[in-house]
Amino acid sequence: MYATNVIAIAGNPNSGKTTAFNRYTGARQHVGNYPGITVEKKEGFAHLDGIEVTLVDLPGTYSLTAYSMEEVVARRVLAEERPGAVIDVINTGVLERNLYLSVQMLELGMPLVLALNMMDEAKAAGVNVNYKRLEELTGLKCVPTVARKGDGLDDALRAAVELAKSTAGRIEPLVISYGSDIDQALNEMVPIVNSVNLLTDRYPARWIAMKFLEHDKEIIGRAERHDSATSKKLSDIADRVTAHLKATLNINPEAMIADYRYGWISSILKNGVLEGADDILERTAFSDKLDKVLTHRVLGPIILLCVLYGMYFLTIEVGDYPLGWVGSFFEWLSDTVGSALGDGALNSLITDGIIAGVGGVLGFVPLIMIMFLLIAILEDSGYMARVAYIMDRVFRLFGLHGASIMPFIIGGGIAGGCAVPGVMASRTLRSPKERLATILTVPFMTCGAKIPVFLLFVGIFFESNKPLIMFMITLGGWAAALIVARALRSTLIRGEPTPFVMELPPYRWPTFSGVVIHTWERTWQYIKKAGTVILGISILIWAAMTYPGLPDDLHHQFEEQREALAAQSGLSEEEMEEQSAVIDNDEEAASLENSFAGKLGRSIEWITAPAGFDWRTNIALIGGIAAKEVVISTLGTAYSLGSVDEESTTLSDQIKKDPHWTMANAVSLMVFTLLYSPCFVTLMVIKQETARWRWLFFSLFFDLALAYFMSVLAFQMLS
User: Fold this and answer.
1) CA separation, residue 99 to residues 93, 120, 353, 441 (Å)
2) 180-285 fold
3) I need a surface site. Which of 27, 116, 488, 566 has the fewest CB within 10 A?
4) pLDDT band at 505 (very low <50, low <70, confident <90, very high)
């Protein structure tokens, strides 16, 4: 049980921690060993404002990872004896290295006061610390001290006692992003830890999961004794991540976690904390030399825009060739299967439902794979984190936190992401209001599910400017997200902004195996979704577009047309075939219009007509609420069942020859697809992350209304 009058003193060796402890306690201290452990245990008493405070001097340590007994003891005292607060004594002259321990205590959920010790020596060495700025960025009370003189020690102790009273010995643990691989593993492990309350009476669940990734033998051993089955599950996940990181980046999880912690610290120090010490901050490391250019205030954004445009240019220019090959394959497959099966419902199901639907989505695999390849290179090199750093100033103007950038990027800010992990990545935001604004705007990004829709229509109507238009669509998603965020932060989600801290991991040369593995993993997820979710939805939509079939009176009308055609004389065989094909085609189109889906599409056509949508498009967009790829698969099925030109075999050809489609219709559809309601899975994750149904419905209906308004505006202006 915590006690507000028990304060722990922590710090690195040679930080002045022992000097501070002795100053506080004088002769009122006793020394012994921790039970069963040959590590010195010091406790003492100090009087402050008429109150007796018990001080616990933790062993000097550089971290809380169990590499030494001192580290094990320090974290056991913090987690199990639960002091009311901790005074972290820091050697100000080497602030970056000393703050590493501070970060780990914050991850453990400890109320912390920073005693910036040896301040006089730091100033003499030319290191000027803006401790008020440090307070602002970290949210921690920072007190300048000179322990050997006693300067500032009472202020630090007073702050610690007050903090202990206000926090009851625990604060919300610090959450840092450690990169997509580790973050994804932590998101998987935390629910497992919570499901059995594995040591959660002492440690935060995320911290326990992280210890498994760091292969902390002490915690893993205790967890195994507590629940061996759960411990085995967590160890399996940790082993999987370890093997993955070793194969892709040639790094272990412990090193990557340490990199991101130091990146978090470095970003703070570079953000106005250290003043007049440029010579100390300047590093000769490769990463810092690159950052002088890539994160430059002027050059950085320009380079970022060039990188983004270059991605689309390479994707489209290189991908056009394999895109044609894949399209030809599905044409051949549809013709071959159709010929083998003969006429009938089974033929229609396989060729019009499955091959046309799923094939329409899989046809874009070459472009998606190239895009994922380029994204993997950017991520593995460390450039993605710099994107967040560059965009920070822009985000603050729109009421978002700088840390919102990573959820945006993961959600498709650099095209090809997914809104589901993007929404979940918002957990790293400490402000609930900034986190909520981020969650509600992540779905506006150009996720991988929307990309096939854009690629299809850009390829048809903007063939000579495909990279530029794709680039503009991505910027449009960012613009929509930022404008909506500003509106939300000014109305429904008002609140003060919080400071931004962004970890900058070191640059690395991407490994060939790492890039290949990351690219294939994401491409396989896309393919697997097409073969499962999209396949199932395609079959359902095919059924909805096929049944109940033509009414008897319409069926008789087409039969009469055939009989009339057969009775005509003077027609050549070729003319007879052409007119017969027209009748067949009209019958298919009429059958589609009279199907369940066709009637639904027709019933709302009066609403969607101002946006330029016909009943086929309506069906596709309704299906897109389940998954955005369904827009393509549904259009593929619709045009296969009710084709406008028998000789047009690809969806692209069908749309080109359909008089309904103009550039205005295409732009309107792309705008609507970019902005309208998130897919079903994303909606459920929004509910899960906000713990409120109202935000699910808000995201569903607000995004739908916004998309409708913008698409109507686009269509009316262009037409």
Assistant:
1) 11, 18, 59, 33
2) Helix Hairpins (1.10.287)
3) 27
4) low
